[in-house]
UniProtKB/TrEMBL annotation:
InterPro entries: Ig-like_ZP, ZP-N. The lineage of its organism: Eukaryota, Metazoa, Chordata, Craniata, Vertebrata. This is Zona pellucida protein AX 4. Residues 593-680 form the ZP-N domain. Residues 368-481 form the ZP-domain containing protein Ig-like domain.
Length: 773
């Protein structure tokens, strides 16, 4: 063939059609084209596009139909699913203009959506290298054999320049042909009759050519070493004077359709289709290109000789093959190979026969599973799903996430990402990322796994191109996140303790309690807490001296206050963990009224001292009860409510325990403070029956300054006037739980007359006063 590789792009008005006219000049290909001129027309055709070929010579233009192509030496392969059309023409085809070279003139008409486009495809090839004495071509739709003509009686006159004249020459009538068939005796026929039966005989460039479509009545089928073979044996003869000229023309081709085994497409041909002194020489390749022997192994091809049979193995993914996806009970694929093989044999007369094969081999439908991998990293907080091995002709169009569909590509308004990567093997892959805590993700707690399960069901919709046939690929992933009870962020303030919790998606599994009571807005309001609770966070501010505090290390300069929030299993109420915070509170004055019946007070008595005087002694009503600590005028007392001379005053709704702190400054007067704790009666479980103090709530304490004369000098004659009492609240009111409750003994009860009086609207009020030693 002449010329270097050339590419011509012709674009139709619809911009949908690209036509490539290609020729190649490498050595093995040039040998392959001794008998065949190849026009590889790679057409990117849409499924609805059509194309028609016409051949043109000096006598007119002829449509290349299927029958006409097989008879006249043209081969057209249309792989519509691949958008591929290929035309091959024999050097000895009917309308080749033969001169110094071989000229071909073709017209291509394409139609798309009712619009026709015309292309002229012309090519002239120089004379090929010398042919072998016998050349046989086994095309996909016909067999052709040409032999060297060495006939007698060839004179220099123009009338006798060819014993076998041109195809339409009247001299063809003197020639007859008989077909040899081992199964029946066939009568001879002249060449005109043979042509009407689809046979072509010609004499071109000193070669006698015989061409026949497959499956003619005069052909026969046999098996050679287990391989099916079709044979046409034609003997052309002519009697000229006393000389009879006979030419034996035999076309024998392997009809093996190929088989698929373990990743290879296997095709075989007999070793001895034609006589040979030894083994035949084999070279082969794909798409009209013979592969150098050294590259055969590199490309993964296999050639084996077994039982006088040559077997060729082509790997399914060999370069030069064509692949197509197909939807059939899942995603499938098939591969198409245009096998090109040259087989050379030498007979006992050292005459060479070259056999050329063009075979289209198609694998069966093979499963083409997509590869899906869950690459989720829980610590990263994102689902990551890899969809791989997506064929190049398959396109992802949409993704359903837990039933909600999203078109591909994703819009910028959603929080999900889809990344496509194209690979060197012409496949591509997609990586989908979805946040684990996105609302579209299903979240549920699994007791069995002791974890929070994040579930995502995906349904990928893929389209096989060209076309719109969908394939659905489903995949489900579950990410397990170990759940642990929450821990609050805690801050100490001057007036209490603040707790803050940023909610996680599974924090609904727990109950938060103060002791045994579930933390609710109502509970917070009843206990004086400040609570803010929404879907994002919980904030609880717990002021000092409210329910739930525990105190220790109480001293004149302050104390430690501890508050705990318990985390319980919502179903079993078991305590799982707690957040406990202890803070140091500095206070110069406070009173604590505990739930177990103790009063603890720190008070500064300087406000009741005359200027310049210092107390000599501090005590309670029972002068044996002295402070636990003293610092100048500041004292610390801690004593049970039912002791140290405390009095109890019962009212309608509460009970008040009262005592007095005395500081002796002279022999005639005692100054000090009245301290008292008041409890609601509804919260007291036991009061007098067993003398054990129990209260649901802490009491409210008060510190009241007073001045009165001492008992030792109180006589009717010397009774001093008691100054009006001033009630002063301490800077802090602290309801502690220190120390623990204990049983006490009631020594005496004073029922003094005059304790009954009329209340509002004439109702009788009872004021009961009890005094404890």
């Amino acid at each position: 063939m002449s010329g270097e590789k050339q590419v011509v792009h012709l674009v139709s008005r619809s911009s949908l059609l690209a036509v490539m006219l290609a020729s190649d000049t490498n050595t093995s290909t040039a040998m392959a084209f001794k008998l065949m001129f190849s026009l590889a027309l790679l057409l990117s055709l849409w499924a609805t596009a059509g194309c028609d070929f016409f051949v043109e010579d000096g006598t007119g233009t002829y449509a290349i139909t299927e029958d006409y192509a097989a008879q006249c030496g043209y081969s057209i392969s249309i792989l519509s699913l691949l958008g591929l059309v290929e035309l091959r023409a024999s050097y000895f085809s009917c309308h080749t203009e033969k001169g110094a070279g071989f000229s071909f003139r073709f017209n291509l008409i394409t139609t798309y959506e009712g619009v026709d486009a015309y292309y002229a495809l012309n090519k002239t090839c120089s004379s090929p290298l010398p042919w072998s004495p016998r050349e046989v071509t086994c095309e996909v739709n016909y067999m052709e054999v040409s032999v060297r003509s060495e006939l007698p009686c060839q004179s220099g006159s123009s009338d006798d320049s060819s014993t076998l004249g041109p195809l339409y020459s009247p001299s063809t009538e003197v020639w007859q042909v008989t077909f040899q068939n081992p199964y029946q005796q066939l009568p001879p026929m002249n060449l005109s009759q043979a042509r009407q039966e689809g046979y072509i005989f010609d004499h071109v460039h000193d070669r006698i050519v015989f061409r026949t479509p497959y499956g003619q009545p005069e052909s026969y089928h046999t098996e050679v070493t287990g391989v099916p073979v079709e044979v046409v044996h034609a003997t052309v003869f002519s009697r000229q004077s006393w000389v009879v000229v006979m030419v034996d023309l035999i076309a024998a081709c392997s009809m093996d359709e190929g088989s698929y085994d373990s990743g290879y497409m296997i095709w075989g041909t007999p070793e001895a289709l034609y006589p040979s002194l030894g083994t035949t020489q084999i070279s082969f390749g794909l798409n009209g290109n013979l592969v150098e022997q050294a590259a055969v192994v590199q490309k993964g091809f296999i050639m084996e000789r077994y039982n006088s049979t040559v077997q060729i193995g082509i790997p399914y993914d060999a370069e030069g093959g064509y692949r197509k996806s197909f939807v059939s009970d899942g995603l499938s694929e098939f591969y198409i190979f245009n096998l090109y093989l040259k087989q050379t044999s030498v007979d006992e007369r050292h005459e060479e026969t070259v056999l050329w094969f063009h075979r289209t081999l198609v694998t069966p439908l093979l499963t083409s599973p997509l590869f899906t991998e869950d690459q989720t990293d829980v610590d990263d907080g994102t689902f990551s799903i890899h969809l791989g091995k997506v064929p190049r002709d398959v396109e992802l169009t949409s993704v359903q996430l837990n039933g909600q569909e999203f078109a591909v590509p994703f819009s910028d308004s959603i929080a999900y990402t889809l990344t496509e990567v194209r690979h060197s093997n012409k496949s591509h892959s997609y990586t989908l990322k979805v946040p684990l805590h996105d609302p579209i993700v299903i979240q549920e707690f699994s007791k069995e796994n002791a974890a929070m399960l994040h579930k995502l069901d995906m349904n990928y919709t893929l389209i096989v191109k060209p076309g719109d046939e969908p394939y659905y690929h489903t995949f489900s992933v579950t990410a397990r996140m170990a759940v642990s009870p929450p821990s609050f962020d805690v801050v100490c303030t001057e007036s209490g303790i603040d707790f803050k919790l940023a909610y996680r998606s599974f924090d609904y599994l727990w109950d938060f309690t103060i002791g045994s009571d579930r933390l609710t807005p109502v509970l917070a309001a009843n206990h004086g807490y400040t609570m803010s609770n929404d879907s994002q966070s919980l904030l609880l501010s717990v002021p000092l001296f409210t329910h739930g505090y525990k105190y220790k290390d109480i001293g004149l300069n302050g104390f430690l206050g501890t508050f705990s929030i318990l985390v319980r299993d919502r179903e079993t109420a078991d305590i799982l963990t707690s957040t406990t915070k202890t803070c140091l509170f500095n206070a110069t004055e406070f009173i604590m009224c505990s739930t177990n019946g103790w009063m603890t007070v720190v008070v500064d008595l300087s406000v009741v001292l005359p200027s310049g005087e210092m107390p000599t002694r501090f005590h309670l009503l029972n002068n044996l009860c002295v402070p636990k600590a003293v610092d100048g005028t500041r004292v610390l007392f801690s004593f049970p409510l039912h002791s140290c001379g405390s009095t109890v005053k019962l009212a309608k709704e509460n009970v008040t325990y009262q005592n007095k702190i005395y500081l002796d400054t002279s022999e005639t007067a005692v100054e000090g403070m009245t301290v008292q704790c008041t409890y609601p009666l509804v919260g007291l479980h036991r009061l007098f029956s067993i003398h054990k103090f129990e209260s649901d709530k802490e009491g409210v304490g008060s510190i009241i300054p007073f001045v009165e004369t001492t008992k030792a000098t109180m006589t009717p004659a010397k009774m001093t006037t008691i100054a009006p009492q001033r009630t002063r609240s301490p800077s802090l009111h602290l309801p502690p739980s220190y120390p623990t409750a204990r049983y006490i003994k009631v020594y005496r009860v004073h029922n003094k007359p005059g304790q009954f009086s009329k209340g509002p609207k004439g109702k009788l009020q009872v004021k009961t006063l009890l005094r404890y030693a």
